[in-house]
Design a protein that fits this description.
Structural class: mainly alpha
Helix content: over 70%
């Protein structure tokens, strides 16, 4: 039942952030970082598009090379979007953490971490991205294994949403094992947020536009878990 409320929490989070000049202004910095990194990497990639095409395919037919350049352009843009997302997640990590802390206070969740710093936020963001890359690589391999292939989609949703739930729990001081236990115990809500996140990220600029709202959505879910005594109010250290 809690999973069905996740879309509602997303709408509430959008309203909360857009109605708060303080929260909204913090969202603009990661967005600007993402746009700048995307434009720079795309310009660089397209500038060397012909060289990349010749290096990969070595075709001499001009019309065929023209077609291949457009195919290469498509993959260049996809790769640049991925690089832009990673760059934004890392360089904008401090702003995402401050947004998370502000929303946690609004939702009544106890926040026990020290004042956020860029170094700590960057380290936490790097760890999350490494987790994601390792799991995505493992998941990509598992799709070729018949027994594991049907699980690829739900596992993807879980991994995509994990970061949004993990960050506030980490800021509360909970151990990694406890965080995994709580997140997995509320699997349906996590999968719902993962499915929503996947759909939103398919929209152009969706990752840049919706990431702050997704952080807030996870926090609202955590607040409900706390009301249901699923989440401890005191930190559980390892």
């Amino acid at each position: 039942m809690r999973a069905l409320l996740v879309p509602l929490y997303l709408l509430q989070s959008i309203g909360l952030i857009l109605s708060s000049p303080r929260l909204f202004s913090k969202c603009l910095i990661p967005f600007a970082i993402g746009i700048a990194s995307f434009v720079i990497t795309v310009a660089f990639g397209l500038y060397y598009r012909a060289d990349i095409t010749n290096f990969l395919y070595h075709f001499d037919t001009n019309w065929l090379q023209f077609g291949l350049e457009w195919i290469v352009s498509f993959f260049i843009i996809l790769f640049c979007a991925f690089i832009s997302y990673i760059t934004t997640s890392l360089l904008g990590s401090l702003y995402y953490e401050t947004i998370t802390i502000d929303v946690m206070k609004t939702a009544g969740l106890k926040e026990v971490a020290d004042d956020p710093s860029f170094v700590k936020a960057l380290l936490r963001g790097t760890v999350h991205e490494l987790y994601k890359l390792i799991f995505i690589g493992t998941l990509s391999i598992s799709t070729f294994i018949p027994i594991l292939a049907p699980l690829a989609l739900p596992i993807s949703f879980y991994l995509i949403a994990f970061e949004y739930f993990d960050l506030p729990l980490q800021l509360q001081g909970h151990s990694f094992s406890y965080r995994v236990k709580v997140i997995t115990k509320n699997l349906t809500s996590v999968l719902m947020l993962g499915a929503i996140t996947t759909a939103l990220f398919l929209i152009p600029l969706g990752a840049l536009l919706f990431t702050p709202f997704l952080h807030a959505t996870a926090i609202k879910s955590l607040a409900k878990w706390e009301e249901s005594n699923v989440l401890k109010t005191s930190p559980s250290h390892s």
